[in-house]
Structure formats: structure tokens, C-alpha cells
Write a structure and sequence with these properties.
Blueprint lengths: L5 E2 L22 E6 L1 H19 L4 E7 L3 H17 L7 E12 L2 E11 L9 E9 L3 H11 L5 E10 L11 E6 L4 E2 L15 E4 L1 H6 L8
Parallel strand pairs: 1-8, 3-4, 3-6, 6-7, 7-8
Antiparallel strand pairs: 2-10, 4-5, 9-10
Helix pairs in contact: 1-2
Length: 222
């Protein structure tokens, strides 16, 4: 089923960096290309069709989780608006909204979620909301976000996540729409970051130890 996501096996080795165009400043920091940009686009197109046919003729407020979700969000909405132009029997009026959260430092989740930016969430009251996220990791961040959104009484809330990571400490949360299910590795690119680096990488790649060490946040000593 399309919404379940394309499952990438734990032993999948991806593609050699030499087979794709990777920014030279990141060549020494990556293990492999896990998901090429073109495959991301094709999968996003199918997710857009699924969402379009599910929501049908009702308005939809697409809520982007910044910063990591911005490229997936932009491409997903582009494909939804294309469907609006060419689909004769269904038309989905789209509204855009944004939220910014903080839950990561280095490659560990802090366990907390902080809303540090975005529009007034009271605007979501009575709306069909599609939360667009880059990755579901343990599931705790999304569960907390959904609890926050429900306080503002939307008509409905669904979640589209480009990636879902298989982690032993996962809560078991699954989004309504999933692009890819990936192994428990730290991935970057296509706006997914490591301490704000790698957002300018088109493909989704696995970061190596060299990259983690190079871009690690240094804690102040007292």
C-alpha cells in the first residue's frame, strides 16, 4: 500500500557517492547516498496523489514543520497544486502554515519539544490540517506536537512524513502518509540537518563519523 512507505532494509548499502553529484565540501563526511533526489520526487508525487484523493473537495491547511520539512513540504505542495490544475473531478483548496520545533542537539534527541517559531496555531481551529514533517524518529516529538495541535480544535489532523526511522526505542507511532521507512542511521540532506549542516544537499545520505565530529556542537566548559 502506498501510504505505508517504501521499506529500506537494514543491510541496504545505498549508492556510492561517486555515482551522484555531491557538494565537494561534504564528500568526506558521508557514507553513501541512501535515497537519490529523483526517487524522492517520484515517491512524493505518489503521496500527493494519495492525499489529494483522500481530502477530495475540502480545504486543506498544510502545516510545515521547519526547518527540516521545508523541501519535502515545497515539493509536496507543488505536486498537489499540479493535481488541482489538471484533475477535473476533484479540487483541493490549499492553505499554508508553518511551525518550528526544537528537539535535537548533535545526533541525540533531547527528549523535549519546544515551539520556537511559527504562526498563531489558533488559525487551525475547524481546519483540516496536514502536518508535513521530514522524519519520524522515536515518535515522541510528533505525539507531543499532535497533542498541542488538538488543543486548538482542528476539524481533522493527518501527518505526512518523508521518512520513518526504525528505532528500538520507537513509540510505534506511524504517520498517515509515509515516504520511506529507513534503518536506524543518522541521515542528512534534502533539508535534513546535522547541527544545521547538510541542508544544502539534494540526496538523502548517511553521515559518517568524520562528519559528526566535524560539525558537532562543542559544549562550553565551566
Amino acid at each position: 500500500m502506498s501510504k505505508d512507505g517504501i521499506k529500506i532494509a537494514d543491510d541496504y548499502t545505498g549508492y556510492a557517492l561517486s555515482h551522484f553529484c555531491v557538494p565537494r565540501h561534504y564528500e568526506d563526511d558521508l557514507e553513501n547516498v541512501l535515497i537519490p533526489w529523483g526517487l524522492i520526487q517520484d515517491r512524493t508525487e505518489r503521496l500527493a496523489r494519495d492525499i489529494f484523493l483522500d481530502i477530495r473537495d475540502e480545504p486543506l491547511t498544510a502545516l510545515c514543520v521547519l526547518k527540516g520539512g521545508y523541501r519535502f513540504y515545497t515539493d509536496l505542495l507543488d505536486k498537489l497544486t499540479t493535481l488541482n490544475r489538471f484533475h477535473a473531478s476533484v479540487s483541493v483548496q490549499l492553505h499554508v502554515d508553518f511551525i518550528r520545533l526544537k528537539s535535537y542537539e548533535n545526533d541525540d534527541s533531547t527528549g523535549d519539544i519546544r515551539v520556537i517559531g511559527g504562526d498563531n496555531l489558533s488559525n487551525l481551529r475547524g481546519q483540516n490540517v496536514l502536518v508535513v514533517e521530514d522524519i519520524i524518529d522515536t515518535g515522541r516529538t510528533m505525539s507531543r506536537l499532535l497533542a498541542i495541535l488538538q488543543k486548538h480544535e482542528p476539524k481533522s489532523v493527518k501527518v505526512a512524513s518523508l521518512l520513518v526511522k526504525r528505532r528500538p526505542d520507537s513509540t510505534g507511532y506511524r504517520p498517515d502518509y509515509c515516504g520511506f521507512e529507513v534503518p536506524d542511521k543518522f541521515v542528512v540532506g534534502y533539508a535534513l540537518d546535522y547541527n544545521e549542516y547538510f541542508r544544502d544537499l539534494n540526496h538523502i545520505c548517511v553521515i559518517n563519523d568524520t562528519g559528526k565530529a566535524k560539525y558537532k556542537i562543542q559544549q562550553n566548559s565551566h
